[in-house]
Design a protein that fits this description.
The protein has helices at 5-8, 17-20, 23-33, 39-42, 51-60, 78-91, 96-112, 115-126, 242-254, 264-274, 282-310, 316-341, 352-364, 375-385; strands spanning 132-135, 151-155, 158-165, 176-182, 194-200, 206-211, 220-231, 235-236. By secondary structure, it is an alpha+beta fold. The protein has 3 domains: 5-131, Orthogonal Bundle (Butyryl-Coa Dehydrogenase, subunit A, domain 1), CATH 1.10.540.10; 135-241, Butyryl-CoA Dehydrogenase, subunit A, domain 2 (Beta Barrel); 244-385, Butyryl-CoA Dehydrogenase, subunit A, domain 3. The strands form 2 sheets. A 4-stranded mixed beta sheet has the order 1-4-5-8, with helices on one face. A hairpin with a 2-residue loop joins strand 2 (151-155) and strand 3 (158-165). The longest helix is centred in the C-terminal third of the chain and has 29 residues, at 282-310.
């Protein structure tokens, strides 16, 4: 790939009117559903776990939007889902329960799963009743997924799974994990010999331990597999094709609004304060313009990638670019808002709710450039994709 081909295929894209039309009813629902939530709680959004809320979204038809109707979905475009994700994040809705399944596990199964796997798992995902977590990172591997050591060995009609995963979001609350494992060779073989398997997290031999982060939350987990027996149909796609499959999966993960809207609740709360007499300063107005001017082109790039995903085209490099640019802005927002609030003298009295949201977002923001692929790994991917290394 030369230095221009990766991005030349992107064209400015608008959300179709029929998908934009979803916003009105969805906003009415979300306004009511989040009305009693504090800004600090809404700032957690896609790490906020609420199984009842996810089931309600499923009942209203907002999950599985892009899945075929024969599997419980709605057969709509990727832009319809984009609209729903934007609204959920802007309102700070608690989306974690269904998040992984709707965003990447379901699409991965649609692309590579057997017919039996699709019929077993996809309807529950669409109803907001079946929750998945992702088993990629491992100790001493991190974003270097090609060096994973967790191993699945064939034993008659079963697989025997042994190893460990870490930073597994909501592994203690999920029903299933899609794990990247080694089915042949060793970690020195890199991409060769990797496969993906579906792991029922209720099986004997599995231990899940939550990890408490700086914010006091415990949604990250480490997961241990001690000779876990998986049925033959746990394999997704072809044995040994796991690397190509996981690259496709990461394209779903890295290009959406969640990669630049994570700090949006804080931003909105701060904007509300800036509109008041106490918060309205020339410095704040300039900062608001700076943030908007950075968010707008990233959203445009994200929408262009959505068009590529809609056409089932590879967008690994472009998705990595959205993730890198987006998380940089997400991390800048709490730092810049803190500078604004604490540099205007003792007469300024920001609302306590705003300060609580700022505190949470500041503590959480270091993780933004780690999850979904660390910044250094992504920049290496981008450089290779553009022919720069």
């Amino acid at each position: 790939m030369n230095s221009t081909s990766a991005l030349n295929s992107l064209t400015p894209t608008a959300i179709p009117p029929e998908d934009e039309a979803l916003r009105s009813d969805l906003r009415s629902f979300l306004r009511q559903a989040t009305s009693a939530m504090s800004p600090e709680k809404r700032a957690r959004s896609w790490s906020g776990f609420d199984a009842n809320f996810s089931r309600r979204l499923g009942e209203l038809g907002y999950l599985g939007l892009t899945f075929p109707k024969e599997y419980g979905g709605h057969g709509r475009s990727a832009f319809a889902r984009y609209v729903v994700i934007e609204e959920l994040l802007n309102f700070g809705a608690p989306v974690a329960a269904h998040w992984m399944a709707d965003r990447q596990s379901g699409p991965l199964l649609l692309k590579y799963g057997t017919e039996a796997q699709k019929r077993k798992f996809l309807p529950g995902i669409c109803r907001g009743e079946t929750f998945f977590c992702i088993g990629m990172s491992e100790p001493n591997a991190g974003s270097d997924l090609a060096s994973v050591r967790t191993r699945a060995v064939k034993d008659g009609n079963e697989w025997r799974l042994t190893g460990q995963k870490i930073w597994t979001t909501h592994g203690h609350r999920s029903h299933y994990m899609i794990a990247l494992v080694r089915t042949s060779g060793t970690s020195t073989d890199r991409q060769k010999g990797l496969s993906q398997v579906i792991v029922d997290l209720s099986l004997p031999g599995i231990t899940v331990r939550p990890i408490t982060d700086l914010t006091g939350d415990a949604h990250f987990c480490e997961v241990f597999f001690d000779d876990v027996r998986l049925s033959a149909d746990a394999l997704i796609g072809e044995e040994g094709n796991g690397w190509d499959q996981v690259v496709t999966e990461l394209s779903y993960e890295r290009s959406g609004p969640e990669r630049f809207y994570t700090s949006m609740v804080l931003f909105d709360e701060w904007l509300a304060y800036v509109r008041t007499e106490g918060g309205h300063t020339p410095q704040a107005v300039r900062l608001a313009g700076k943030i908007f001017s950075q968010l707008a082109p990233i959203r445009a790039l994200s929408l262009a990638i959505t068009q590529k995903l809609e056409r089932h085209e590879n967008s690994a490099v472009e998705s990595a670019l959205v993730k890198d640019l987006g998380t940089s802005v997400e991390q800048m927002i709490p730092l810049a808002i803190a500078d604004d609030l604490y540099s205007c003298g003792p007469n300024q009295s920001p609302p306590a709710a705003l300060l609580a949201a700022l505190n949470y977002t500041t503590l959480a923001s270091p993780s933004y450039s780690l999850r979904g692929g660390t910044r250094d790994i992504l920049r290496g991917m981008i450089a290779r994709g553009l022919g720069l290394r």
